[in-house]
Specification:
This protein has a 4-stranded antiparallel sheet. A 4-stranded antiparallel sheet has the order 6-7-5-8. With about 200 residues, it is α+β, with helices and mostly antiparallel strands.
């Protein structure tokens, strides 16, 4: 799998009457559907995303995604086939869609972007109790010592499959080395993978 050489930048246009999280919901639902179609129709899973202005605050008070989304691919062909402009044609009043461009060869930084999933402590305790054949109280005491859920920025998503809403929590981390690979239909990693995209 080759490195990411091309990208397209999407920027939410600030509007005093519309909160960014509302636009993120519309924008990323469309990106998600587009990536799912790329996988299902073309077998393409090499397109990844990043949030250039991402910020994580451990206390959760100032965690944010920012107003930009970059969509990366190993060549311009995948981005042409993605046709993100068509998917976002109803959002052009709210989102500025950049041209497909080459990643600057001088870019040395990389990030891995993850869909963060955290099982409730009760679920963790039940699973541990069953696995180790111990009581629920003992399992809960063990689980309580684990890392708590991270207060990450998220996008409110809507599932077309079961017509329900859910939070897509985003964890973006700096990486010292680039790592090629495949992405899920959010353009991200799961929690066990760390495929990277360029960052500047």
């Amino acid at each position: 799998m080759s490195q990411m050489t091309h990208y397209q930048e999407l920027t939410i246009i600030p509007d005093p009457d519309i909160a960014p999280y509302f636009i993120w919901r519309k924008l990323f639902n469309q990106v998600h559907i587009a990536l799912a179609e790329m996988k299902n129709k073309h077998g393409i899973e090499s397109i990844g995303v990043s949030f250039p202005d991402y910020h994580y605050d451990k206390k959760g008070k100032s965690s944010k995604l920012g107003l930009k989304l970059r969509v990366f691919a190993p060549s311009s062909d995948e981005l042409v086939k993605l046709q993100i402009n068509n998917w976002l044609n109803k959002l052009t009043d709210y989102v500025e869609i950049g041209f497909i461009e080459e990643v600057d060869k001088n870019v040395k930084s990389h990030v891995s972007v993850h869909r963060y999933r955290f099982k409730p402590v009760e679920v963790q305790a039940q699973a541990l109790a069953k696995k180790l054949s111990i009581g629920y109280e003992e399992a809960m005491a063990t689980v309580a010592k684990r890392k708590p859920e991270m207060p990450l920025p998220f996008i409110q998503m809507h599932s077309q499959t079961n017509d329900s809403n859910y939070r897509l929590k985003v964890l973006q981390q700096s990486c010292s080395e680039p790592k090629p690979g495949l992405f899920n239909v959010y353009g991200m990693n799961g929690m066990k993978d760390s495929v990277t995209v360029p960052h500047w």
